[in-house]
Structures are given as structure tokens and as C-alpha cells.
Design a protein that fits this description.
By secondary structure, the protein is mostly helical. The chain is built from 4 helices and no strands. Helix 1 crosses helix 3 and helix 3 (65-85) crosses helix 4.
């Protein structure tokens, strides 16, 4: 699996986790499905491709204002909890974040 696909999988899991445990919903509502689709679309269009930093370390913030606010909210809540629900994805995401810091 390449970097972009792994990032898509991680963001989808974070949104699902947020909806299931923070919003107490069994299914992902349309609003958050849109956010998931939007994030995946932005990853597909990322000009850095598989060499990309984590989005928060990127020099180019390509999200629209509202989507950026929502994804920050989701990630702020779901990020720490990923170690419990998807530890492999969490460790990989943290690893790439550390690597992107070292590149700077």
C-alpha cells in the first residue's frame, strides 16, 4: 500500500471513530461522509504524492476553511484514541510526522 492510500485509510478510520464514539452514531452521517470523501479527494490531488509530509506540516494547506475546521476537530479528538482502536495506523501516522519534522 502506498503512502496516499495509507493516509486515506487512516483518515477514514479517524472519521468513523469520531462518529461512533464521540457522536454516538452507528453509521457515518452524510456530513462526515462528505468530509471523508473530501479528504480522500485532496489526498489524490496532493502535488507531493507519496513524498508528502503530514498535512499539518505541509506548506500548502489545500483544504477549504470549513472542511479544515471539521477535520481538525475530528483529528484532535480521534488522534489520541487511535492508539487504542487502530494502533498500527496511529504508529505509522506518528512515524511519518516525525520523519517530516526531521526533513525540515
Amino acid at each position: 500500500m502506498n503512502r496516499i492510500e495509507r493516509e486515506k485509510q487512516t483518515v477514514r478510520k479517524m472519521i468513523e471513530l469520531y462518529c461512533r464514539h464521540n457522536l454516538n452514531l452507528d453509521a457515518v452521517p452524510e456530513e462526515y461522509q462528505h468530509l471523508s470523501d473530501y479528504a480522500c479527494h485532496r489526498l489524490d490531488l496532493c502535488r507531493f504524492g507519496n513524498r508528502k509530509n503530514t498535512c499539518r506540516r505541509c506548506a500548502i494547506h489545500c483544504y477549504a476553511k470549513e472542511e479544515r475546521r471539521k477535520i481538525c476537530e475530528v483529528m484532535r479528538w480521534a488522534g489520541p484514541r487511535m492508539m487504542l482502536y487502530a494502533p498500527k495506523d496511529a504508529v505509522m501516522h506518528l512515524w511519518y510526522d516525525v520523519l517530516s519534522r526531521l526533513k525540515q
